[in-house]
């Protein structure tokens, strides 16, 4: 599926949430690629904007173009290795907010559905019990509006389009979703209302747990939640043991 005309936002050009000698955390706006696309007209991205000022900047994870919120980058190769290893071994925790269509009756739960790329319709993904990769998302209802439900989402895995597909599969697609929402739910918002609000990781300089947070434009009351509202079945492992 070809990308529609790419018109990324330009104000603010870069929104830095936190930085030090090792890491940089930015608030990516919706509509901006995390990394350049293949076509020259798709070069503008979070990485290409940052590399001008930070020539050694390294991407360690990505957000969909339509998703807003926290992106973590490494300022040098050693930090990149540390952070990528944490994502690989699920040592990070992320909290998202999503406005989904309809009323989600169950107040909280786990969505456990394996995902695979829907190749004839890529970049769409689909559930596949035979070949899909294990994918889990925990969710919690935050509040109800007339036509929608605001969900707090904790992805256990990090598959492409995981939160979008899992929301759709429980009958409540994310509003503004150009791939999975019904026409009514798509037209409800001029953007995909999915935002990466909080990210926790072990800082590569001292192995201490570090959390970054950025407000959500469609839920301004959002506050840091990783330790408050989710009972994480397995606490963050000891990163020092992983490095040993």
From TrEMBL:
Residues 22-166 form the Pseudouridine synthase RsuA/RluA-like domain. PROSITE patterns: PSI_RLU. Its EC number is 5.4.99.28, 5.4.99.29. It is an enzyme of class 5 (isomerase). It holds the Pfam family PseudoU_synth_2. SUPFAM superfamilies: Pseudouridine synthase. It catalyses: uridine(32) in tRNA = pseudouridine(32) in tRNA; uridine(746) in 23S rRNA = pseudouridine(746) in 23S rRNA. Keywords: Isomerase, rRNA processing, tRNA processing. The keyword Isomerase applies. GO terms for molecular function: 23S rRNA pseudouridine(746) synthase activity; tRNA pseudouridine(32) synthase activity. The keyword Glycoprotein does not apply. Dual specificity enzyme that catalyzes the synthesis of pseudouridine from uracil-746 in 23S ribosomal RNA and from uracil-32 in the anticodon stem and loop of transfer RNAs. Belongs to the pseudouridine synthase RluA family. This is Dual-specificity RNA pseudouridine synthase RluA. It comes from Vibrio gallaecicus. The gene is rluA.
